[in-house]
C-alpha cells in the first residue's frame, strides 16, 4: 500500500507566491527573479512530501496562476490576440490571465469560471479556427527535470484532454470535435517527451467525468482515450475527483490505462462501482483523505472503506488536490484540544502515511489516538438550537401572505416611482476605511474613534445618496471587513484561523471561517448601523444581511452534522436578526445569497434532491415571519441561474437583484418565458471594471430590460456591491444611473407616483 496526493497548495506557507507575483506585476522584481523564486518554492514542497514519506510525488501541480491556463499554454491554445503580441512567453501567459494594456497592445483577460463545486476559479481556454495545437511550452518538462535533479522521481500532472475540451470555449463556429485529432497528437507528444526524460507515469486530471455525461460526451471521452493509449509511451493515471464516475465506469476500466483515480469522499457511488469489479492489471488511486475540508480523517471509517475495495493494487490518495485547503495547522493559535481536530495540507500528508501503515498492520497506537477524537463529543450540543430545529413546521418556511398580496400592500405603502433606483449595499472600501479598521484592530485608535469614523462616512454617503436622488438608500457597509466573516464573528459556533488561506484565483485567496459547533446569534449584528442610518434620513434605508446558504458555502462546514442542518441553524440565527431589524424600524431588508449556486451539485439530477430542496427553504426560513409590509430583497452574484429559475422564485423574496450586465442580459428571455413574478433589478452596469457608463448607455440597457420585463417589476441598480471600486467612478456612475432611470420613467408615468419624501 503506497501513498500519493493529487496536488499540493502552491501559494506557500505564508502566501509568499502571491506576494512575489504581485511584486512582479508591479515591476518590482524581474522575470528571472519570480522564476527562481518559484523554483525554490517547488523544491521546498517536494522536500516536504519526501520527508513526510509520500511515496509517489506529483510535479507540474505548481502553477504561477492556474493549471488549466498552464495546460492550454503548453499546447499553444492561445487566442490570436495574445499570441500576436510582441511579448515574452511569460508576459503572454500573464496577458491571458490578467489582460495586457501597454505599449504593445490592449487585450482583455480570459474569462474565469468556478472550478467545479469549489471556490477556485480557472481561466477558460479558447479554441479558434486557427488554433494550431502543438507542444510549445516546456513547464511540465522543466519541472519534472528540476525534481530529478533533487533526486526525486515525480509523476507529472496535467489537465486531461477530455476535461480541457469540456471546459473550453469555441470561437468561429468550431467545436470540440474539430480539435480531437490534433489534441491527442499533442498529448502523445508530451507523453513521448516525458518518456525520453525518464518519467514513468503521467496523471491526467479528468474531473469532467464526474458530471452527467450524454452519449456523445461518452463517445468523445472513449475516442480520445482509445487513440491516446494506442502507442502508449508511459503509464497513464486518469484522475477524477469531486464526484463519482457512474456514467463511464465500465468504459474506464476497459481502457488501456494503468491507473484510475477515484474520489471516495464526494463520489457517492464509487465504492459500489468498484465492488462490481476492478481489473487486476490496473492500480486504483483511492481518494480517501478529504482534500476539501479541514477536519481530521476518521481512520476507522476510512479503513472500513479500504477493506471493501476489491482492487489488488491500491495507492492511498487525497480525494482532490490539496489546493483547496490551507497549508498547515501548526501556524494557528487554537488551543491544543481544538487543533487536534484539524488537518490542513501538511497534516493530511501525515494522515496518508498513518493510514498506509495501519493497513499493513503497523503502528496500531495511531488508530487509538485518532479514535479518541471521534468517540467523545467534540462540541457541547446547544440544546436550545436543537429544540428550535425540532419544532419547525411547514409554516415556519412560508410567508402568510402570497407574493401578489404583498406586492399590492407594498406598492401602496412605499409609493416608489416607477423604476426605483438603489444600490447593492457597500460603498467603496477605500484605503482610508481599511487603514482605520486596521488601526482599531491594533489598538492604535479607540473604539469611540473608530465608531466616529464609521459614523462620519455613513452619514456622508447617506447625504450624498439623497442629493443625487436615489430612491432606496443603503448605509454603505463601512463597518464590515467581509460579508461572511463579519457575521461569523457575531455568531456562536464559529472559529477563525490566522493563516488559513486558500487560493481563489491567481494571486487571490480567501480565508474561510470554520463552523465548529452549533450556531446561534451571539448578539445583534447589523441592527446598530442600520438604525443609525435610518435615523439620518426620511428615505428608506435597506437593512443588509448575508443569507445562510452563502455563509455556509463560504465557510469550512462541519462533517459531524449535515450541511442542511448547519444551514438551518444559520437560518435561525439570521431570522432573529431580520426580526430584530424589523422591530427597530427597518422596513426593507436585503438578504444576500451571493454564493447560492456554489454548492449546486455537479450532476443536474441531484440539484433538487441533494441541495435546492433544503437551501431554498433555509432562505425562506430567514424571512418567513416578517410583516407583509416589510419588503425582502435578495441579491445573487451570478446571473447564471437560467436553469434554476423556479428555485429562485421559490425563495419568495419581494425583489431580487443580480449580475446581468456581463452576460448580455440573456437571462431576461428566460425570466420572460417563465413569467417570473418576483420584482427584478438585473444590474444595469458592470461594477467589476472602473469604467464609467454614460447616461445613454444605461438608458439603452434599461430599454433592453423593459423590452422583456414589465416596467412595474423593474428596479434600477448596479450589478453588485461597490466596495472594490474607487469613490470617483462610483459617484459618477451612480449619478448617470439615476438620470437614466428618470429619463426612462417618461413624463406621464413619472407624474403618477409621489416621492416618499
Ligand atoms: N451587500 C454586499 C455588497 O454590496 C453584496 C456583495 C456581493 O454580492 N458579493 O458588498
Ligand atoms: Zn454580488
Describe what this molecule looks like in 3D:
- By secondary structure, this protein is of the alpha/beta class.
- Helix content is 41%, strand content 13%.
- The protein has 30 helices and 23 strands.
- The strands form seven sheets. It has an eight-stranded parallel beta sheet. The chain has a five-stranded parallel beta sheet with strand order 19-20-21-22-23. It has a two-stranded antiparallel ribbon with strand order 3-4.
- Helix 8 runs parallel beside helix 9 (215-228), helix 12 packs across helix 14 and helix 23 packs parallel to helix 25 (612-623).
- The longest helix is centred in the middle third of the chain and has 22 residues, at 447-468.
- It is globular, with a radius of gyration of 27 Å.
- The protein starts with a strand and ends in a 5-residue tail after the last helix.
- The structure holds glutamine and zinc ion.
In terms of topology, how is this protein built?
Elements: E1 2-3, H1 16-25, H2 31-51, E2 57-59, H3 67-74, H4 80-83, H5 89-98, E3 100-102, E4 105-107, E5 112-114, E6 121-123, E7 126-127, H6 139-149, E8 154-159, H7 161-167, E9 169-170, H8 180-197, E10 201-205, H9 215-228, E11 235-239, H10 249-254, E12 259-263, H11 270-275, E13 283-289, H12 299-308, E14 313-318, H13 336-339, H14 345-359, H15 365-375, H16 383-391, H17 403-414, H18 431-441, H19 447-468, H20 485-488, E15 491-495, E16 502-505, E17 508-510, E18 514-521, H21 527-534, E19 542-546, H22 548-553, H23 563-583, E20 588-592, H24 607-610, H25 612-623, E21 631-636, H26 645-650, E22 655-658, H27 667-673, E23 679-681, H28 695-706, H29 727-745, H30 747-752
Parallel strand pairs: 1-14, 2-8, 7-9, 8-10, 10-11, 11-12, 12-13, 13-14, 19-20, 20-21, 21-22, 22-23
Antiparallel strand pairs: 3-4, 5-6, 15-18, 16-17
Helix pairs in contact: 1-2, 8-9, 12-14, 18-19, 23-25, 28-29
Bound molecules: glutamine and zinc ion.
